[in-house]
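Action item from last meeting closed. Structure (338 res):
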């Protein structure tokens, strides 16, 4: 895939945060590719750095966070080279939209929904900025169209209601409309269905897929659930303890997982496990990560060289990438766990 086919690429990203107990190595040489018009899932256990990666792309990391290495290239421009003012003016909210995790906390309960969503458009819409009545009218008309697209009943009345007057699923639809309001090229969704019941979750996933196709969006979808990945994503990148360990097309990863962590993670899914299953041990602490491959203390296929250095990433002709010594030249892959 040529660079021109990629909307976003993350290369060798390393992020650390100083704490009272030492320096936490949150991300360790993470790589990610998002092609134009594709939905890419980032999946892994809690604490693997998925949300930190999403926030790094948005430029909303904690103030103490340090980017030690790497690049985040969006439309040929390294976002890490931009200051916060430039990110806010040109990128965040305008070129890159965001759907937050919790629909119950993301909206201000003291303001009407219309006021909050139109304020986003006032600051970030491509034709916004002067507060003119004509533009306010155009923004309102577009917002009403989006509310219809996300299946909010009676959009005119919805704009005059407060957040508490909507259900969780309706609030998430409002946040999706807000993320699309300024016609972004990329939308980042940080586990946006976690707080919803299963039926509503399925509705939201179908809605996101339909909207991505309708508006030609690329999407970065953060989740811990391979079931969600199977429903929504074209491609997937698996993270473990701040490292990207495997990536490729969703169907390929689901049918032929190569990294032992991906295999074990899939084996835990209720659709595949015959009994309650889990992965022994816990995710490595970013304050004291193990050397080499961070998964090796929990890995049933670990070799002595796994603890020496992080394995190089091997990419096959189909774009399936895996960072594991089992797939280096001359190595014999271990059998998949049953």
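Sequence:
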């Amino acid at each position: 895939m040529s660079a021109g086919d990629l909307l976003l690429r993350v290369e060798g990203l390393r992020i650390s945060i100083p704490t009272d107990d030492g320096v936490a190595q949150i991300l360790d040489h993470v790589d990610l590719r998002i092609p134009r018009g594709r939905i890419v899932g980032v999946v892994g256990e809690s604490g693997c750095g998925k949300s930190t990666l999403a926030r790094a792309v948005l430029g909303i990391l904690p103030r103490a966070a340090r980017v030690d290495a790497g690049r985040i290239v969006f439309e040929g421009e390294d976002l890490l080279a931009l200051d916060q003012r430039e990110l806010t003016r040109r990128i965040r909210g305008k070129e890159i939209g965001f759907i937050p995790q919790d629909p119950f906390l993301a909206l201000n309960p003291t303001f009407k929904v219309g006021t909050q969503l139109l304020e986003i458009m006032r600051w970030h819409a491509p034709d916004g900025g002067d507060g003119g009545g004509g533009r306010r009218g155009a923004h309102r008309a577009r917002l009403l169209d989006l509310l219809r697209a996300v299946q909010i009943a009676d959009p005119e009345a919805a704009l005059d209601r407060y957040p508490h007057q909507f259900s969780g699923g309706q609030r998430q639809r409002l946040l999706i409309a807000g993320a699309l309001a300024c016609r972004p090229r990329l939308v980042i969704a940080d586990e946006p269905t976690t707080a919803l019941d299963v039926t509503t979750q399925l509705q939201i996933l179908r809605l996101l897929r339909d909207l991505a196709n309708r508006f030609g969006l690329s999407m970065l979808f953060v989740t811990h659930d391979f079931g969600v990945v199977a429903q929504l994503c074209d491609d997937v990148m698996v993270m473990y303890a701040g490292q990207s360990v495997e990536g490729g097309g969703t169907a390929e990863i689901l049918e032929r997982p190569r990294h032992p962590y991906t295999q074990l993670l899939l084996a835990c899914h209720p659709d595949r496990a015959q009994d309650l299953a889990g992965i022994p041990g816990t995710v490595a602490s970013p304050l004291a990560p193990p050397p080499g491959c961070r998964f090796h203390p929990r890995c049933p296929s670990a070799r002595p060289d796994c603890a020496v250095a992080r394995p190089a990433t091997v990419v096959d002709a189909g774009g399936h990438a895996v960072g594991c010594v089992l797939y280096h030249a001359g190595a014999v892959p271990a059998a998949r766990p049953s």
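Note appended to the action item: Residues 3-95+184-327 form a domain with the Rossmann fold fold (CATH 3.40.50.300).
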